[in-house]
Amino acid sequence: MLALLVNPDVTTAWTWADLLVSERIPCEITPSGADALSHARSLTYDVILAAPCLGDMSAITLAERSARLSRPVPLVIWGDRIAPDLITRVFASDVTDFCNGAAHIAEVVARLQIATSRVEKPTTDIRMLKVGSTINLKTGDVTIGEKTGRLTPKEAAILDALIQGGGRVLSKQEILNAAYGHLDQPELKIVDVFVSKIRKALGGPAMIETVWGRGYRFNGEWA
User: Fold this and answer.
1) Domain Response regulatory: where (predicted)?
2) 3-class secondary-structure state, position 86
3) Who's near 47: CB < 8 A, 6+ residues apart?
4) Domain C-terminal end among 54, 83, 117
């Protein structure tokens, strides 16, 4: 499970992160709803854990917008003094669940697990290129015409993030996040190595464009 933490209070956000990491849940931190949506569009998160008020929007608004993404992400609210009227609005919104700020981390983890279990799972890990090539993101197997190849789990995670980006340029840091999550990460230059290997497996550089000074963008068309 990879969680996206959304909280404008940096101190609280890092406290959340430390608690989740202690429960072996990797996570990323962002301070605003707009940033959270940007991250959720480009990377594959399993759940969003948000404070009730994010400064630029409410957690309920973030939940409504994240539910309309091409890959919807469940959202759980975690915060102190959740007012009764907010709870009523939560039940009528796209928020998956909520828990009081005083909740024990075990309860929070349980609610996150329940939230992710409610999401409809993809029926297949296979992505099909319209010209007939396929990639199995679970096994890493690549078929390009009559040729076959294989991606490592990290290479498959990076390719999936690029595909989920929907044509948006992903920075090298975003690509590393897709491969390593909250774990210790190598230097950014390793991204060039990963992309080179993915391009080789895909039969050439055409599907992954280098945008100098910014990062990489996927140019293929996937079903």
Assistant:
1) 2-116
2) helix
3) 1, 3, 4, 73, 74, 75, 76, 96, 112, 115, 116
4) 117
Asked whether residue 29 carries a pLDDT value surpassing 70, the answer given is: yes
Q: Give the per-residue pLDDT at 31.
A: 93
Q: Is the pLDDT of residue 194 over 50?
A: yes
Q: Residues 146, 73: one domain?
A: no
Q: Which of 7, 47, 11, 8 is nearest to 27 (CA)?
A: 47
Q: Please indicate, yes or no, if residue 110 is contained in any of the structural domains.
A: yes
20 lies in some domain: yes
Output the pTM of the full model: 0.56
Q: Tens of pLDDT along 111-155?
A: 888 888 766 555 556 766 545 677 787 788 888 777 777 888 888
- State the CB neighbour count (10 A cutoff) for residue 149: 16
Give the count of alpha carbons within 13 A of 91, CB side only.
6
What distance in Å separates the CA atoms of residue 80 and residue 76, rounded to the nearest whole number? Answer: 13
Domain that holds residue 21: 3-117
